C-alpha cells in the first residue's frame, strides 16, 4: 500500500503515555470512522499513514458511553426546592417548576449537556427524556439536531409519562400525555431517526418513565413497537424502597414481577439504577440478559441505595454507567462518575473486589452492551474510532505512577482531546465549533428566568 492509494486517510495516534487496550503500546491507527490497527510498543504501523498525532503526553481510553441522563435538568441544578430530599419528594418539588420548560430552554439544556459529556471524555451520549409539556412535542427532534451539530454519538430515548396525580401517579396533569399520543410519536421518531446499523451516529430507544407514572398498556405496546423497529427499551426500576412499596400497593407485585408481566424481561431492555433487587430477582434479570445502568453519583445524592453491580454482572446482566439527571447529580461528567463508581463499589464490596479497571469497563464495554452495541466501547480493530485522551499535567496528578489508575484515583474530569467516529470533537480541552462562554451565559440566563430565585 502507498499513500497514493484511494481510501480514507490513515491517522497514527502514536506512542501514548498509556492506553486502555492490549498490544497497543505504540498507539492506534484510525482510518475513516474506525480503528484499523493496534501498534505494539516500539513498533510502527504495518502500512504507511497520512498523519501522525504524538500522544506521548496523553492517556488514551475508549470513549465513555453514558447510558442514563435527563438533559433538561441542567436548568434546575441545586434548586432550593429540591436539595436535601429523597427521590419522591425531590420529584414532587421539581414537577412544580419543570412545566415552565420552553423549546429554547430545552435546546440550550441539551447543547450544554452534550458539551459537558464530551468534555468529560464521553463519545456516546444517552438521554432519557420523558417531559413533554405543551410546546415540547418535538423534543426528540431537538436532541437529534443538537447531537449532529456537535458530532457526538447519540442514543436518545423517547420517554413518556401517562399517569398523572389524578390517575394515582406522581406528575401533574400538564406533564403527561395519553398512551396513544405517546405511541404515535414513538413510531414517528423511530421512523425518522433510528439507525440500527453498526456505526450509527443516532439511535432511538423507547423509555416509559417508571412504574409510578405510566400504564401497563404503554409498557406492553412499547415492547411490541421495539420488536418491530429493532430498538432498545429503557425505564427506571428498583431505584428506591418507595418504588417497591408503590408497586406492591398499586399492582400487588414487586418491580421485577411487574417488568416480567409487561414483557420486558429480555436483552432488549436496560434499567436505570436497579438498586433494590433481591437475590432471586438478580438471578432472573441475569438469565434474561436485562442490562442495568449504575448511577453512583445520583444514588449517593438522593441516598437511594447501592446498586448490586457485582452480583448483577455475575448473573449475566450487562452493567453500564450513567451520570443521571443534572438535578440529581448535579453535573454531566461521566469521568467523575467512573471515580464515584469505584469508590461506592469499594465501600460496598471491599478494596480488592472492585478496581479502577472495573469502573472504566462499566463506562465503556458495559455501557455499550446495555445499548446493544458491539461496535463501540473498546479499542480494537474494526471498532468505531471513539477515543478520549487525557493529560496528566494538573497538580492533582503530580506524583502519580500508574497513568490509567491516576485517571480514576486522582480525579480526572476533563479530556484534552476527544475523537468520535474518527473526527476530533474536542481539541485542547474545548469542543470544536462551540462557544462555551456564550452557551454558559445564555443557558444560565434562561435557567434564572424560568426556574430560579437566584
From TrEMBL:
<dbReference type="GO" id="GO:0102127">
    <property type="term" value="F:8-oxoguanine deaminase activity"/>
</dbReference>
<dbReference type="InterPro" id="IPR032466">
    <property type="entry name" value="Metal_Hydrolase"/>
</dbReference>
<keyword id="KW-0378">Hydrolase</keyword>
<dbReference type="InterPro" id="IPR011059">
    <property type="entry name" value="Metal-dep_hydrolase_composite"/>
</dbReference>
<feature type="domain" description="Amidohydrolase-related">
    <location>
        <begin position="59"/>
        <end position="424"/>
    </location>
</feature>
<dbReference type="InterPro" id="IPR006680">
    <property type="entry name" value="Amidohydro-rel"/>
</dbReference>
<protein>
    <submittedName>
        <fullName>8-oxoguanine deaminase</fullName>
        <ecNumber>3.5.4.32</ecNumber>
    </submittedName>
</protein>
<comment type="similarity">
    <text>Belongs to the metallo-dependent hydrolases superfamily. ATZ/TRZ family.</text>
</comment>
<dbReference type="Pfam" id="PF01979">
    <property type="entry name" value="Amidohydro_1"/>
</dbReference>
<dbReference type="InterPro" id="IPR050287">
    <property type="entry name" value="MTA/SAH_deaminase"/>
</dbReference>
